[in-house]
UniProtKB/TrEMBL annotation:
Residues 2-272 form the CTP synthase N-terminal domain. This is CTP synthase. The gene is LOC101493365. One of its GO terms (molecular function) is ATP binding. The lineage of its organism: Eukaryota, Viridiplantae, Streptophyta, Embryophyta, Tracheophyta. It comes from the Eukaryota. Belongs to the CTP synthase family. PROSITE patterns: GATASE_TYPE_1. Its EC number is 6.3.4.2. Keywords: ATP-binding, Glutamine amidotransferase, Ligase, Nucleotide-binding, Pyrimidine biosynthesis. HAMAP family: PyrG (MF_01227). Pathway: Pyrimidine metabolism; CTP biosynthesis via de novo pathway; CTP from UDP: step 2/2. It comes from Cicer arietinum (Chickpea). InterPro entries: Class_I_gatase-like, CTP_synthase, CTP_synthase_N, GATASE, GATase1_CTP_Synthase, P-loop_NTPase. CDD domains: CTPS_N (cd03113), GATase1_CTP_Synthase (cd01746). Catalyzes the ATP-dependent amination of UTP to CTP with either L-glutamine or ammonia as the source of nitrogen.
Length: 602
């Protein structure tokens, strides 16, 4: 087994996740089997209880693991299926060591950070690296490991110590360290400054790790003078210093690595020369380079609770991009804070209210994503009602599906106090209820999580056709509440069709309005399985409906015809922007809370 460790220095948010994903894709394109591990030094056992505003979205895996969003990047770039153990946290490591101590596994020894914690980290990495994630038997050839945070963080120190030991444990020819660092350009002098990277490498060496490859984030290509300085002071060959400069979309990053021979540098360190082929990135190159050619827009209003941070809906945005690419459209995402659609905002902040409604009314499609808590729920219900009554394509995900059911019950069935017990535990008309198997005392890991099977109840419906007329599908879930089965018959008699249910037939998974151009709600999270060149079916149908291509897509899907390969350029307020690859993977504009439109450039 070969290991490639990716670390970061100077500042956080440099794009280590994209870099690690791109390295994995590049190595896979060379004919190697690749897996990935993300190390998060926080004390949480997993990301499940963390606020999306603080940490970004919680990515859900097939096995129900609630993990860091970088694992979503790994899955999308490398097209693999990871496990919960591919995300290591300080909480998991300490918990495993303490459990061993309680069992008496350490035979009365004093349990310490070194060697017990550091050994546990090494054992975890080695064990997980051998788990196949590509559907084939046997372990991968290379494991890409990303160490979260920045060199110098106090919480990272046990992991750095362990990785230093690990490099000796596996041998120098089996361990390659890629250090991602920042080379800023000061506007005053216009010169690329290498000193921050020099200090970062020095700090890394002082803790027992020596980088063989330097990946420098900068606005422009590193000039020869800067590269020579880095080579001299960081003791790294010039050919092993790579520039990750600003590019139009992150799909170009693997191509940057390829063009600068990053794979050859890795092969040299890992003694893989002659064992791997030249990278075949033809399909990926077409996707990346066709990005700027798309010019016909499709405008989507995303009505959510966490619109102040785009990472909160990262996979949703990726899935929208994948679908818009397939439909050969450029994507405009208008961020609308759900509370800004409510009457209370009209009195408290009329400008925000008017701006939010202006964006909603010009949208080609309306998407209500998942979320928790009652803030903004009324605004989401208002958005659903607007989409239903005005025949605007609508997609509701998880909570988005639940509020669609509540809106229908209130507006069509006349149940004015219809609600969810999540928002009103004492409601007399519960349309959405707490699942009986859930826990009301423990929050972490107690939801209905992971891949679950949905059976189509009707073959002649949009969702079934989009999924290729299959009898069932497997999608990932993350929820505590469900549609009240006692109300299903009444809802269906009034025109709301539950076209997908679980194996018991009692849990509602997909809801549709047949007399609507596109009105679909899903209890699962289809965004987690969307891939470049292979978009999620319901997202593809949503974008196709928004741009007038749904009939064509339904015909292709029902015949099993694959989606086109292309690329999308994301625009801001409908105007083309030449945004570059940024530390947080894309540029997120200002004014999200007030509902201003913002584009994401992938």
């Amino acid at each position: 087994m070969k290991y490639v460790l990716v670390t970061g220095g100077v500042v956080s948010g440099l794009g280590k996740g994209v870099t690690a994903s791109s390295i994995g894709l590049l190595l896979k394109a060379c004919g190697l089997r690749v897996t990935a591990i993300k190390i998060d030094p926080y004390l949480n056992t997993d990301a499940g209880t963390m606020s999306p505003i603080e940490h970004g979205e919680v990515f859900v895996l097939d096995d129900g693991g609630e993990v860091d969003l970088d694992l979503g990047n790994y899955e999308r770039f490398m097209d693999v299926k990871l496990t919960r153990d591919n995300n290591i946290t300080t909480g998991k490591i300490y918990q495993s060591v303490i459990d061993k101590e309680r069992r008496g596994d350490y035979l009365g020894k004093t349990v310490q950070v070194v060697p017990h914690i550091t050994d546990a980290i090494q054992d975890w990495i080695e064990r997980v690296a051998h788990i196949p994630v590509d559907g084939k038997e046997g372990p991968a050839d290379v494991c890409v490991i990303e160490l979260g945070g920045t060199i110098g963080d106090i919480e990272s120190m046990p992991f750095i110590q362990a990785l230093g030991h690990f490099s000796y444990r596996v041998g120098a020819s089996n361990f390659c360290l890629v250090h991602v660092s920042l080379v800023p350009v000061l506007n005053v002098v216009g010169e690329q400054k290498t000193k921050p990277t020099q200090h970062s490498v020095r700090g890394l060496r002082s803790q027992g790790l020596t980088p063989q490859i330097l990946a420098c984030r900068s606005t422009l290509v590193l000039d020869e003078n800067a590269k020579a300085k880095l080579s001299q002071f960081c003791l790294i060959p010039g050919e092993n210093i790579i520039t990750l400069y600003d590019v139009p979309n992150i799909w170009h990053i693997p191509l940057l690595l390829r063009d600068q021979k990053a794979h050859e540098a890795i092969f040299e360190v890992l003694n893989l020369k002659g064992m791997a082929q030249e990278p075949n990135l033809k399909e990926w190159t077409i996707r990346a380079e066709s990005c700027d050619l798309l010019h016909e827009p499709v405008r989507i209003a995303l009505v959510g609770k966490y619109t102040c941070l785009s990472d909160s809906y990262l996979s949703v945005l990726k899935a929208l991009v994948h679908a818009s690419v397939s439909c050969h459209k450029k994507l405009t995402v208008d961020w609308i804070s759900a509370t800004n659609l409510e009457e209370a905002t009209a009195k408290e902040n009329p400008d925000a209210y008017k701006a939010a409604w202006k964006l909603l009314k010009v949208a080609d499609g309306i998407l209500v994503p998942g979320g928790f808590g009652d803030r903004g729920v009324q605004g989401k219900i208002i958005a659903v009602k607007y989409a239903r009554e005005n025949r605007i394509p609508f997609l509701g995900i998880c909570l988005g599906m639940q509020v669609a059911v509540i809106e229908f019950a209130r507006s069509v069935l006349g149940i004015k106090d219809a609600n969810s017990t999540e928002f009103d535990p004492n409601t007399k008309s519960p349309c959405v209820i707490f699942m009986p198997e859930g826990s009301k005392t423990h929050m972490g890991g107690t939801m209905r999580l992971g891949s679950r099977r949905t059976y189509f109840q009707i073959k002649d419906c949009k969702s079934a056709k989009l999924y290729g007329c299959k009898s069932f599908i497997d999608e990932r879930h993350r929820h505590r509440y469900e549609v009240n089965p006692d109300l299903v018959t009444r809802l269906e008699n009034s025109g709301l069709s539950f076209t997908g249910k679980d194996e018991t037939g009692q849990r509602m998974e997909i809801v549709e309005l047949h007399n609507h151009p596109y009105f679909i709600g899903v209890q699962f999270h289809p965004e987690f399985k969307s891939r470049p060149g292979r978009p999620s079916p319901v997202f593809l149908g949503f974008i196709a409906a928004a741009c007038g291509q749904l009939d064509v897509v339904l015909q292709q899907s029902s015949r099993g015809v694959g989606s086109d390969i292309s690329s999308a350029k994301i625009y801001q307020n409908g105007l083309a922007t030449r945004q570059a690859y940024r530390p947080a993977e894309y540029v997120f504009g200002n004014g999200n809370v007030n509902g201003n439109g913002n584009g994401l450039h992938y």
